[in-house]
Design goal:
Strand order of the largest sheet: 4-3-5-6
Number of strands: 11
Keywords: Cobalt, Lyase, Metal-binding, NAD, Nucleotide-binding, Zinc
Shape: globular
GO biological process, one term: chorismate biosynthetic process
Helix content: 40-55%
Radius of gyration: 20 Å
Structural class: alpha/beta
GO cellular component, one term: cytoplasm
Distance between the termini: 42 Å
Organism: Bizionia arctica
Protein name: 3-dehydroquinate synthase
Number of helices: 14
Largest sheet: 4 strands, parallel
CATH superfamily of the largest domain: Dehydroquinate synthase-like - alpha domain
CATH class of the largest domain: Mainly Alpha
Order of helices and strands: EEHEHHEHEHEHEEEHHHHHHHEEH
Length: 355
């Protein structure tokens, strides 16, 4: 697979990854390398990654605990302190080896330590490959509120080695599929249609779909890097999806949902709302619901949980001037941004989801 060029960096794939990073390490005079991992990527991905690195530089490993609950300023403080104690300087390089939590948090830590050090993203989950590591968004949650603190800052390069996907449990693979499905809805019905016959989410079948998904996201980000207009379409399903994810994360009586599981629900809700406000086909909405539920199942959202979820919408980072904005669909590949939605229609959408 050919490398994908963005205006600020390159995205490399599989064997090309290691050729490119080794060339880069020889060309740039870094003082030291820091690799950020969690306990899972430390065990399952780090040995393979290090075995492909060719450098005489000192490499330090910094490990954080896995899971969205650790995507916090407190964790950042721990990593900043570790960098300081290990004598990182402005010429240090940080390599973020992991899923969306690692790439989001690691990118933010690198972007803010000593006012910014270089970093490279090495996503190891499907979600991080097709979404979190692409486009320069970095940041952390504020308590249970998603992605409230962060900066947009691009990495030196992104290395997508799909062999890391063999280490993932099935639910993590499904979580990444949600963002790929979203790319089909907002950008290309042809791409969406490829998922209606997808029987299993395993690496060999997915390589081409991953590549195409990254191309779609990159093409949108390149046109609107700071999310003033077009890039907002990438938030399809995320307004309610993030609220659902935050609610399940903060409620001790609930089993937390993975990001993609919550976004899958959010996309069904947004698609139903689209049939009411922007003229999206009701028949296609039902097909989309069936496809998503076939992949993700249907976790029920009880009636008493819906109002607290709606209350969380006021914290959505896309809000402006106190107004909550949704991305809706007019047709496949044709989105409408900055749509306001009444609460009674949101309640109706939850009823449709649960039916």
């Amino acid at each position: 697979m050919n490398s994908i060029t963005t205006s600020n960096y390159l995205i490399h794939f599989n064997t090309t990854c290691y050729q490119e990073i080794n060339t880069h390490l020889k060309a740039v005079n870094y003082s030291k390398i820091f690799v950020l991992v969690d306990q899972n990527t430390h065990e399952y991905c780090l040995p393979q990654f290090l075995s492909n690195l060719e450098t005489d530089l000192n490499i330090e490993i910094i490990e954080i605990e896995a899971g969205e609950v650790n995507k916090s300023i407190e964790t950042c403080s721990g990593v900043w302190n570790a960098l300081s104690e290990l004598e990182a300087d402005r010429k240090s390089l940080m390599i973020n080896l992991g899923g969306g939590v690692i790439t989001d948090l690691g990118g933010f830590v690198a972007s803010t330590f000593k006012r910014g050090i270089s970093f490279i993203q090495v996503p190891t989950t499907l979600l991080a490959m097709v979404d979190a590591s692409i486009g320069g968004k970095t940041g952390v949650d504020l308590g249970h509120l998603k992605n409230q603190i962060g900066v947009i800052n691009t990495s030196e390069m992104v290395l997508v080695d799909t062999s890391f996907l063999k280490t993932l449990p099935e639910n993590q693979m499904r979580s990444g599929l949600a963002e790929m499905l979203k790319h089909g809805l907002i950008y290309s019905q042809d791409y969406w249609n490829k998922f209606t016959t997808l029987e299993k989410s395993h690496t060999d079948d997915l390589d081409e779909l991953i590549y195409e998904s990254i191309e779609i996201k990159n093409s949108i980000v390149e046109k609107d890097p700071h999310e003033n207009n077009l890039r907002k379409t990438l938030n399809y399903g995320h307004t309610l999806g993030h609220a659902i994810e935050s609610y399940y994360l903060s409620n001790p009586s609930k089993t937390p949902l993975l990001h993609g599981e919550a976004i899958a629900i959010g996309m069904i809700l947004a698609t139903y709302i689209s049939t009411k406000l922007t003229g999206f086909s009701k028949d296609e909405c039902n097909k989309i619901k069936d496809t998503i539920l076939t992949i993700f199942g249907q976790p029920k959202i009880s009636e008493e949980d819906i109002i607290p979820i709606i209350d969380l919408l006021k914290f959505d980072k896309k809000n402006e001037h106190g107004k909550i904005y949704f991305v809706l669909l007019e047709a496949y590949g044709n989105s409408k941004i900055n749509c306001q939605v009444e609460n009674n229609l949101i309640l109706e959408a939850f009823k449709y989801y649960n039916s």
